[in-house]
Write the structure tokens for this entry.
Amino acid sequence: MKRSLILGLESSCDETAAALMEQGGKLRASVVLSQAGHHARFGGVVPEIASRAHLDAFPMLLEQLWKEGDAAPGDLAAVAATKAPGLIGSLLVGLSLGRAMAYRLGVPFVPVHHVQAHLFAAALGEKPVLFPALGFIASGAHTEIWFLQSWTRAKRLAATRDDALGEAFDKVGKLLGLPYPGGPHVEKWAEKSNGKACAFSPVRLKDKTLDFSFSGFKTAVRLAWERSEKSDREKAEIAAGFQKAALEEVRVRVAAFLRELRPRTLVAGGGVLANRALRSILEQTAKEEKVELCLAPLEFCGDNAAMVAGLAEWFLKEGYLPKEDVGFEGF
Ligand code: KG4
Ligand code: ZN
């Protein structure tokens, strides 16, 4: 039997995921189990519950993966798992499972950085990523801009000083009384208004860097909501005002870096890339700045293991094995 598949495992936060990537980069199967239901009543992810839910989920998720991929452990050429960043208890579940499987099968183990994998999700779409590229990632924990010479040579240009963009969406959702996670709900409410009735000021950081800061929006939204009569119309206006202002922060920075660095491609990934307004802003910006655009396909914006297995497949093809103790920045 030919060992030709790469197994990817993801368990950094509240999604348990596994995927099989063929050598050559064709996705064979990908399964994701969200724990959102476990955490909803707490209004955020509870680390202890998350770790235990990963422990419960992996055995049956792997059974499902073998079935969907018409494969068995003996078909594996390598095993990859998310190594960092994330909740340590959750990471340990996927990492330990991956290491143990690789050891038992006598195949390489590939530790994968979560932020790097979110960016690599852009390569799971139709179009090839041409380097150098500008990478934008927006998730529940990260909002960063990277300059990528390749998938292994990258420099971080900007990051958030406080809340991540997804976190800001979630906190705004909570303030407006929307279910957890708030991001998709805020987007739905924002679609009901043009955002003009409740405009929020842009963020000004004193040191004039292009870092992000989203925490001020939280206070502005809270004050606006407290002053309002809490009608549906006002809820929509505040959600739209927040979304418009927060996404403008992204547009301004991405456009500035594209103009300065002139990369060939703009790549973007992370859970918040499921937001239609954000996708269309990036489409428009890429068009104006005349760069190719590779957005993570919708199904691979949130946490998934296809991006983990895909990046590992690329590493192995390049003969590159990342060290377990370094981050994306160390490459
Ligand atoms: O990448 P991800 O699944 O997990 C992390 O690595 O953090 O991102 C989850 C984040 C959450 O904050 C969620 O509310 C946000 O992505 N999100 C959205 C949308 N869909 C998910 N934010 C805004 N609009 C959306 N449609
Ligand atoms: Zn993530």
The longest strand covers residues 76-84. Residues 13, 139-141, 166-167, 169-170, 181-184, 187, 270-272, 274-275, 302-303 surround KG4 (ligand 1) (CB under 6 Å). Strands lie at 5-10, 15-22, 27-34, 76-84, 109-113, 133-138, 143-148, 154-159, 265-269, 292-295. Residues 47 and 269 are 24 Å apart (CA to CA).
